[in-house]
């Protein structure tokens, strides 16, 4: 399973990339706002921090303007993946862009039928939002299971990119189901490394090692 970082914070991306765990990055207008930076400038910098896909989102609602925005964004770097919303115009844009060889991430997916439409439109990635699903009393992971089943039934190439991840259990469940990608806020990736017994084990080993009075090297 690939790990993407869901942030426009370049310091976080660079730090996490050094762990070898970062296979790509996702951004959205809210994350660009949070970064306080210019979308073109920050996206270019992010594209230099990973060789993987970097999702940059259009903000127009109509197909024609989405295409114009995508034209601007995809010139930033070869690894830009254009993010479009799951609307009729978004999917028209998806079909046109993927037909030209541009990667497209269809975002704001909240149903398996929407995911089916995105796959038929040739999406490179579908982004079902599990956290926002859970927030509304629905089961986000059931949505991922349904999409996995449907995509496997018809051998769609579209990758399931689990989005709106809030905690490590979302990552574990995504891996069990066989999702292709999990995009996570930096804090969730950092949490994956942690276990209280790992910390306790290190503490015990270091205490015993100090008692030996030895050094390595
Ligand atoms: C990623 O592509 C999404 O934009 C993001 O995961 C949304 O997460 P949120 O629901 O925490 O805003």
Task: Give the total of beta strands.
Answer: 8
Element-level helix/strand string: EHEHHEHEHEHEHHEHEHH
Characterize the largest beta sheet: strand count, sense, and whether it forms a barrel: 8 strands, parallel, barrel
Poorly predicted tracts of residues: none
State the end-to-end distance: 38 Å
**Helix amount:** 40-55%
Q: Would you tell me the overall average pLDDT? A: 98
Chemical compounds bound to the protein: erythose-4-phosphate
Global geometry: globular
| Classification by helices and strands | alpha/beta
Rounded Rg: 20 Å
Number of helices: 11
Strand content: 15-25%
Strand order of the largest sheet: 1-2-3-4-5-6-7-8
Task: Write a structural description.
Strands 1-2-3-4-5-6-7-8 form an eight-stranded parallel beta barrel, surrounded by seven helices. The mean pLDDT is 98. It is globular, with a radius of gyration of 20 Å. The two termini are 38 Å apart. The protein is 52% helix and 17% strand. The relative contact order is 0.12. The protein is of the alpha/beta class. The structure holds erythose-4-phosphate (E4P).
